[in-house]
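Quick log. Single chain, no ligands specified.
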Amino acid sequence: MIHHTRHSFVLKMGAAIAAALAACLLPTGCGKSGRAGNGDTVARVSIQNKGSDTMVNLAQVWAEEYRKVAPNVEVEVSGGGSGQGIAALIKGTIDIANCSRNMKPEEIDQATKNTGKIPKEFIVGYDGLAVYVHKDNPLDEITFEQLSEIFAEGGKITKWSDLGVKIPNTSSDDIVRVSRQSSSGTYEFFREHVLNKKDYKLGSRDMNGSKEVVELVSSTPTAIGYSGMGYATSGVKMLKVATKAGQPAFAPTVQNTLNKTYPISRSLLVYTLGEPQGPVKLYIDWMLSDAGQKVVEASGYVPVPVAVRAAP
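-> predicted structure:
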């Protein structure tokens, strides 16, 4: 249980939320009501939040913690991948899309055409996209070129012996590639930034969620996969990564992600249609508050520095 909200913050936020609820500007947000203890009618707001599987655990904790600050606001969280969240935003059926990649220009254009509103982007945290192997794998670091040879179409690395590695306690030498489904922002980000936009090889084990990638790698001694650093467990090892052979390799730590020496660092993003209003604006403001950013840190990701949050 996380308790980070100061009393003064709660009072200020509570007053602001009350005003926003009174205005009730969101088309998806209002319509439910209940009775307060004194018999007064209390407006209830539902915020629809969908997208990135990398962010789904973080988003669920955010929703739970925010309920303590704003008891009448229910944030309904679902995953499915960044692409699914963006598709729903383009249709105007959700309030907030969680994304582990940036919206593409054509997606922004389609959302604007469909809804008349230009999507607004907010950076709500940072992630090191980690390369995972089984905890007993002797490999400690890897390069972009080697990852491309393993994962990309036409790549020639198919066995651990190709990397000079012998996996203990198994006779198998074949590399089991663990990837994500194509609607995943993590899939897109890895393809663009690590594989240099090459297509993936056929034959990988494509998982629906970030957690599932790490679980499969932890139970498969010959596996290698990629997922957010917040999903690390004791059953896996996160490799150091170098952009080129002979260059320094860096681990996906908080400091290396924040200063971007870790080469697969990325922003965690939320998108709204136009400038957020009412309860949605207050919720995003809370995500970027000290309380919301402590949830980011507790979830294994990297908070947005105060100076960046304060920037216009």
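The chain has a mean pLDDT of 88.
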